[in-house]
Amino acid sequence: MANPFKNIQGVTAWRAPSNIALVKYWGKFGQQYPRNASISFTLNNAFTETSIQYTAKESSDKNIDLNFYFEGKENPKFAEKIQRFLESLVQQFPFLPYFSLEIHSQNSFPHSTGIASSASSMAALALCLTSIENELDGGMYPSLFFEKASTIARLGSGSACRSVYPFLAVWGKHNHVQFSSNEHAIPFADNVHPVFKTFKDAILIVSSEEKSVSSRAGHALMDNNPFADARYQQANNNLDLLINAMKDGNIAKFGEIIENEALTLHALMMCSSPSYMLMQPNTLKIIDLIKTYRTEKDVPLYYTLDAGPNVHLLYPSENADEVENFIKHTLLDFCENQKVIFDEVGKGPIKLK
């Protein structure tokens, strides 16, 4: 078949951040749809940069032609995953079989360090693919562009759909959040007090080892979890409470909810069948020290966890000096090789030249 894109070539590149969920999504159905709505902070310093060079083939053979490089080197494991993902997207992006693709991807943070690399990497890839479509078809409205990129990112990694928006994003249909959807995330920064747009996130690396149970497997175990229905109701209620706290600038209520969400997430893992535990002794020690510090110093320092042992410390920017002093002098002893990654709420993806 003749190639309708004959002689067309180009390159596009995006930087997409990771995100940290405040109300967690845990459990999914269908094609990467969430069982409950979630909300996240978009990060700033933890990001993936991805570029795609695309060159029209002489003719379409219906195969995806891909060369993939991660941090400058061929990575067969990642390449196979990306190959399968691209093959699944031909209906959304009919141009894919007509081009040879060379993809380069790199993270600003080490892989497997408690930062959602699948979120940033799939968001960056989705933004690049949507940009190519935009360049070939003549463009779409910016809001529709990011909506489609969010939808495509979701197909690669559920939480990735939240990484295409600045500051905060909500994903999942919720009766009290206008325009919320299971298909894609929506931006939510306009609905919160300014204090939350400058929050800090210090990520304490308790362990950089690969998780014993993947997030994909953990989500699947929710299908038979005896507490699943109660959890989905709790998450949606917590989202209501958190949204109200963030509108009002109520940092104490915000902290109470996000810590409850973190512990509930890990409790669900422990009562799954088979059960498993991803927190480690130093995770619990850090949590205990945070609670003691907060009580004694009256400093608004709160924690959350993803599906792993590492701890995200969330605090207002005006408290950064005292909190980071506490981290360096007290908490680093409980981190692997005294490793901490200092991050903050960020302004979302950037198209690179």
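That was protein one. Protein two is written in the same sequence-then-structure order:
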Amino acid sequence: MRNFILFVRRFFNLILFLGLEIVCIVLIARTNSLQGNDIMSSANAVSGTMYQKQNDFVAYFGLRRMNDSLINENARLRLSLAKFHNLDTLKDTAVHLVVKAKDSTHVVQYNDYIYRTAKVVNNSVSSGNNYITINRGSADGIAKNMSVISSTGVVGRVVHVSAHFSSVLSVLSVKQQLSAKLKDGTFSYITWEGDNPDIMVMKDVPQQIKIHMNDSVFTTSYSFFPADILIGTVFKMKVNTKNNLRQLYLHPSTNFRNIQYVYVVENKMMDERIKLEDSAKKASK
């Protein structure tokens, strides 16, 4: 109490001045409409700015929850698209939706596919074979050879799984090639040549096929990806003089430099298909 009294005595003149200033401002605002409107406008502008800063601060720390909400909404949208894409089989199709609130895991099962959301925790684009680490593992239903896609296109294939994490071999890998098709159904393979993460190559395309710049290229049902997932768009064409076929250069639809969320896709029929194809290969030898 003694310190407070000493403080008031020391700054009495300043405190008195500020008090009188506040009284004058209040009196002016109440008795003069023009000045009062100016004062109120200034006060509203200051308070509005403060509220905006407060809202920006709160929104920043809510980004993770917002991102989880968006990725789950995208999973629901993929379910809707799958329904329209498979109208003929809807009556014989079971749909299952599971949401785990603890970590915002979202699982959508439609027909032969199950979509699981995941967050990218590590990524590379500068080596010959690039890998992506995601925060889902065997405890979340992830298994080896499942395909991985983003909201914009293909990403890669699961190659290693632990209880809570998985390693994905990116399509930016010289180890693998993608079965792909043009919009008219022309089939070929896409590879990555190991240098530029913004360029992929579709080889051996006949010259009689009509192709335009910015044409889209999609996955086929022959690959481990679901069919009709966007791979990239054509930005350059070149004729291979050795076989007189064209090479198409694509910009990948997925931005691998800034990928944050993905979908891990389980094909319920893949194991049966692999076993059948392996048996056929053995029988032909």
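The domain at 63-174+258-284 is CATH 2.40.10.340 (Thrombin, subunit H). Keep this in mind for the problem set.
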